Amino acid sequence: MRKTVISHVAFGCASALLASSVTYLAQGQPAPSTGLRQTELFKTKMDDVLGRVVTVRRTERDPGNGSAPHRHPGSHTIGYVLEGTYEVKVGDGPLQKLGPGETFYEPPGALHAVSRNASSTQAVKYLVIQISDPTKPQSVPE
After folding, report:
1. Which residue ranges make up each domain of the chain?
2. Which letter does DSSP use for residue 6 in this model?
3. In angstroms, rounded to a whole number, what is the distance separating the alpha carbons of residues 39 and 48?
4. Who contacts 119 (Cβ-Cβ below 8 Å, separation ≥6)?
5. In order along the chain (142 residues), what is the average pLDDT of each group of 10 residues?
6. CA-to-CA distance for 50 and 81, rounded, in angstroms?
7. φ/ψ (deg, to 5) at 19
8. CB 44 within 8 A of CB 54
């Protein structure tokens, strides 16, 4: 039951915020030439679900940009690709190249072995929705 409630809340939040995120992205905001940019779009404490915190962030990675392997010990992490191609490998799963409209899921503590922009010419933009235990670290390097 708790898993169902969490998944419904996460996808409900994602759906509600996706329209406003896409509108914001369509405004043609200029982007710096290198790196990673994250914009927190929404954050709230869920008092009725063990005090978990729901966060929605828009993430942009420049061509070729990626992060080192890491884990999110207390977070269910859901990603939704808006633009470009995102390359991801979670746990023992396959290396995936995801395009617009595709999603990925990271359970708490899973190894996020690959997280990078698969393109050498275009930025990738994606939403990250996390349901987190605020008593655990947000991210730890591998």
Report:
1. 2-135
2. H
3. 26
4. 63, 64, 84, 85
5. 47 42 39 72 86 96 95 96 97 96 97 96 97 94 92
6. 29
7. -60, -45
8. yes
Cβ atoms of residues 86 and 117 within 8 Å: yes
C-alpha span between 132 and 96 (Å, rounded): 24
pTM given for the model: 0.73
* Residue 99 CB neighbours (<10 A): 13
Structure tokens at 21: 């995120």
Q: What single-letter DSSP state applies at residue 59?
A: E
CB 62 within 8 A of CB 109: no
CATH code of the region 2-135: 2.60.120.10
- Distance CA(82)–CA(19), nearest Å, equals 11
Residue burial 11-21, b: 16+ Cβ < 10 Å; e: rest: eebbeebbeeb
* Centroid of chain to Cα 138: 13
Q: Are 36 and 61 a contacting pair, CB within 8 Å?
A: yes
Cα gap 30→94, rounded to integer Å: 34
